[in-house]
C-alpha cells in the first residue's frame, strides 16, 4: 500500500481470497513437531517443584558409547519437608549426562564424572557459605534446611548486573536457594564465577558469591552488617600488615 493512495474502494483481483468474503477460511497448517532429541519435547514433562527439573532416568542414551555410573552421592545438605535427618542427593553421572543431553548440550562422555565432582563440590561450598550467614540466627534456629532451589543461568542477579556495568565479569551460572529457617522461608542468591585455572595442581578455580536475597528488611540488614564486618576485618588485616612492615 502506498502512502496517500485511496484504496477504500479498490476491488481485489478475481482469484484473490478476499473475494470469498463468506467463505470458510482454510485451516492453518499444523506446526512441525520438533525433532525427538530436542529439549522442546520436554516442555510438558512434569517438574519437581523442589528443584525445578524433571525426574531423570538412569538409562543411557541410545548413542552413548561410555557406560556411566548410576550411584548417587549423599550430600551434607539437610533436606526440609522430611521427618528425619534426610540429606539431598546429588545426581549420578548418568543422570547428569542425561540432563545435559536433554538440554541439547553436547558433552564429552569421558568428562562427565569430573563435571559431577565439581558440581557436587560447588554445592557443598555454597551450603557452607549459607551457614555462615545463618550463624546470625543460631540462637533461634540451629537447624536450617534447604527447602528448594532453582537454576537461573540466563537471568543476571541485580548485583551481578550492576557490577558488570563497571567492568566486572558476569557469572556463568546463578542459583536461587530457599531455606527453611525453622518455619520461615529465606531465599539466597548464588552467583558462580570462573577464575584462572590452577596450573600447578591442574584444577579449575571457581568463586561463589552467596548472599540473602533482598526480599525483606531483615535480609537487607543482614547484608549491611556482613558488609561492614568484612570491611572492618579487611581494614584490620591491612593495618596489621602495615604495622609488621614498619616494625
UniProtKB/TrEMBL annotation:
It is an enzyme of class 4 (lyase). It holds the Pfam family Cyto_heme_lyase. InterPro entries: Holocyt_c/c1_synthase. Residues 26-38 have a biased composition (Pro residues). It is found in: Mitochondrion inner membrane. Keywords: Heme, Iron, Lyase, Membrane, Metal-binding, Mitochondrion, Mitochondrion inner membrane. Its EC number is 4.4.1.17. Lyase that catalyzes the covalent linking of the heme group to the cytochrome C apoprotein to produce the mature functional cytochrome. This is Holocytochrome c-type synthase.
Amino acid at each position: 500500500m502506498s502512502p496517500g493512495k485511496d484504496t477504500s474502494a479498490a476491488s481485489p483481483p478475481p482469484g484473490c481470497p478476499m473475494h470469498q468474503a463468506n467463505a470458510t477460511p482454510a485451516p492453518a497448517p499444523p506446526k512441525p513437531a520438533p525433532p525427538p532429541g530436542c529439549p522442546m519435547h520436554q516442555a510438558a514433562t512434569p517438574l519437581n517443584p523442589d528443584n525445578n527439573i524433571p525426574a531423570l532416568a538412569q538409562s543411557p542414551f541410545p548413542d552413548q558409547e561410555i557406560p556411566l555410573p548410576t550411584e548417587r552421592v549423599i550430600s551434607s545438605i539437610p533436606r526440609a519437608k522430611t521427618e528425619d535427618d534426610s540429606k539431598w542427593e546429588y545426581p549420578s553421572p548418568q543422570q547428569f549426562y542425561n540432563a545435559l543431553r536433554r538440554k541439547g548440550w553436547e558433552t564429552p562422555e569421558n568428562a562427565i564424572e569430573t563435571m559431577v565432582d565439581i558440581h557436587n563440590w560447588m554445592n557443598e561450598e555454597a551450603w557452607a557459605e549459607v551457614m555462615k550467614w545463618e550463624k546470625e540466627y543460631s540462637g533461634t534456629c540451629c537447624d536450617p534446611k534447604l527447602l528448594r532451589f532453582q537454576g537461573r543461568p540466563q537471568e543476571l542477579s541485580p548485583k551481578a548486573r550492576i557490577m558488570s556495568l563497571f567492568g566486572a565479569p558476569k557469572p556463568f551460572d546463578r542459583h536461587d536457594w530457599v531455606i527453611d529457617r525453622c518455619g520461615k522461608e529465606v531465599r539466597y542468591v548464588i552467583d558462580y564465577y570462573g577464575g584462572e585455572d590452577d596450573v600447578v595442581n591442574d584444577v579449575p578455580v571457581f568463586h561463589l558469591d552467596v548472599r540473602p536475597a533482598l526480599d525483606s528488611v531483615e535480609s537487607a540488614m543482614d547484608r549491611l552488617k556482613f558488609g561492614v564486618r568484612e570491611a572492618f576485618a579487611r581494614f584490620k588485616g591491612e593495618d596489621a600488615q602495615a604495622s609488621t612492615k614498619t616494625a
